[in-house]
Amino acid sequence: MSADAFRWPDDCRAAVSVTFDDARPTQLDAGLPILDEFEVKGTFYVVSQRCLGRVDDWVRAATNGHELGNHSLRHSCSGNFLWEGRNVLENYTVEQMDEELAEASRQIEELLGVRPKTFAYPCGQTFVGRGIDRRSYVPVVASQFLAGRGFRDEYLNAPTFVDLAKVGGTEMDRMTWEQILAHISRAKERGQWVVLVGHDVRDEGHQGTRCEVLKRICSHCTDPANQVWIDTVANIAQHIQDSRACESG
Ligand SMILES: [Zn+2]
Questions:
Q1: Which of 8, 51, 87, 199 is such that its CA lies 20 to 30 A from the CA of 71?
Q2: pLDDT tens digits, one per residue of 22-37
Q3: Phi-psi region of 71 (alpha: psi -120 to 50; beta: other; left: phi over 0)
């Protein structure tokens, strides 16, 4: 669709989603209280097995309007990570991934009561197989979900162009507020959608989104003067899809 035809709601100039992967306990204990303080709705990409110890807390998060998305059945990534006890993407087929993602959605719905609308690629990796048999599993995600989110992508998302099955994700862990604000400012200049990706919510560690930075994101994006729409991946992806349907229909 043409760039002129697209509008973010309420005169906003950019969109932001705050997402967290792996259902880590610090997301419940440190992340959710910050989001709830600012009435910001986040997206949590969960593996159902990792939710077992805190089922009631995850159900409550969903009831409060946060999005629970699919983060695969086994968190399968490249075998080069040398993690123990996992199926590795180099040994998958597209058909196996199709079955596992459907099973993961079924388990999440059974355990947490919500059917995932969007997906996050574990490790941001979108392939199965190796060599001449290597394939993308983006088409599987496109067939099962409204949107699929990447990780460590070098672009922000242009709403008139983005492939919703491979939405770019921008790292939030370890970042300073100034670094995040630079992304948001760039998105406002171009009308783009920033999808931030975090893991733990804590003030130390390689995979930790800093509490103060999360607060600044929420505070900035909920101030109407800043003209940013902050919402879940599902809600923003749905707006983009509806806009396209509207123009073509
Ligand atoms: Zn993950």
A1: 8
A2: 999 999 999 999 999 9
A3: alpha
Ligand 1 centroid, distance to 101 Cα (angstroms): 14
**Confidence bin at 3 (pLDDT 50/70/90):** low
Average pLDDT, the chain: 95
pTM of the entire predicted model: 0.96
CA of 71 from ligand 1 middle (Å) equals 7
DSSP codes of every residue in 166-215: GB--EE-TT--HHHHHHHHHHHHHHT-EEEEEESEESSSSTTEE-HHHHH
Q: What is the mean pLDDT of residues 98-107?
A: 98
- Report the C-alpha gap between 56 and 236 in whole angstroms: 26
CA-CA distance, 156 to 107, in Å (whole number)?
31
C-alpha 3 to ligand 1 mean position (Å): 33
Q: How far is the CA of 68 from the centre of ligand 1 (A)?
A: 14
* Selection from 107, 188, 104, 195 nearest residue 147 by Cα: 195
How far apart are the CA of 140 and the centre of ligand 1, in A? 18
Residues with CB under 5 A from ligand 1 (ion): 21-22, 122
| Structural domains present in the chain | 3-248 (3.20.20.370)
